[in-house]
Cytochrome c biogenesis protein CcdC (Paenibacillus ehimensis), 161 residues
Amino acid sequence: MQSTAFPVILVIVIIALVLWRRMRAAAKPVKGSGYRLLLPLLFLGFGIFGLLNPELHLTVKEVTLSLLFGLILSVPMIMTTNYELREDGQIYPKKSKAFIFAVVGLIVIRLALRSYLSGLDPAELGMLFYLIAVAYVVPWRIVSFVKYRKLLAQQGNALPQ
């Protein structure tokens, strides 16, 4: 008999770590030209190989809805991620309580969807959630990078070519 408390505790720990990391990052300036903001996109790229699994039977509708849902979820993340130029001449992420609510809301929605879609094959469900994650992380990180670069250009730094 598997305890249902373990997944809930794991999710709470993950939420706490994400929020703790985000709050700590706000105290440190973003270094360099901002390309580190795009690193998660590289890491997400490895999961695309899961689509090559011949046991997956995803329909175009499922994939399209997952991607659209992910794009919708990216909007609050984009809106709550901003940067500021401080007196020391460095660019810092802006602290935002709305970001905390966006992350918690995102995780709650994913947990609700997981229980709602529990009838799907675990591999298919995992791939759909991966597609949702890609569809909200990619636009969020790209827009974050663009916001940072605009502020960097305003700061007067020459953008490296």
